[in-house]
Amino acid sequence: KTPPPPPPSSKNKNTNDSKFNKSLSQPTKAEEVEKAADGPIEITIDEPPEESDAKDKNTLKEEVESLRQFLRLKLAQHVKDQDEIEDLRQRLAEVSKQEEGLNKLNKIKDERDKLADEAKMLRRREGEQEKLLQTLRDACAADKKQMEDKDKRIQDLLAKLEVFQRMAISGVPSPRNNRFVRVVRTSRSGSAAAAPFLGIRSSFSSVASGEMHLRSLRAPA
């Protein structure tokens, strides 16, 4: 037969009673949640020990310093980029001005080419006109020479006519084979027109009519 368990001592009994009473006096989890929802929320961070805290601070300082260095580099790069952007803007403005000047220059070249073509056409026309003028000059020179020859011949005939007038007035005979008589005979149509010059002793009126005929020959044909 096994012996029955010993009865609990009074000390253990009191301890169990105090734990039970304490558990009853403590709030449950649901009550804590409701109380936390109604009241302010508190966030507690477990603080590390001093040794790990020092390590974290050093690491944080290094990270902050590294971040500052990175920001300094970025700022310097940003300033450099801004300078390059400003330089590029100035270059772009200069290129735009040069492009505008180049467009004007191209327009001027086009106008110059047009003027050169017009000048070539004018020179060609001037050459044609010069040829035409030279032809007219040559024709005028030939006509002038012909007129001068005709005037010279008429002057000779008039001089001879004046001699014949004097001979007719004075009654001096002249030979029939005289050149003046032959010229007058061939220059006028019909024997009646040449009759006043064929007679040796023709009257003054007949000689005057021959003089008028010779003067009419001076007019251009």
Automatic annotation (TrEMBL):
Residues in coiled coil: 78-167
Superkingdom to which the source organism belongs: Eukaryota
Annotated segments matching region Disordered: 1-60
Sorted UniProt keywords: Coiled coil
Protein name: Uncharacterized protein
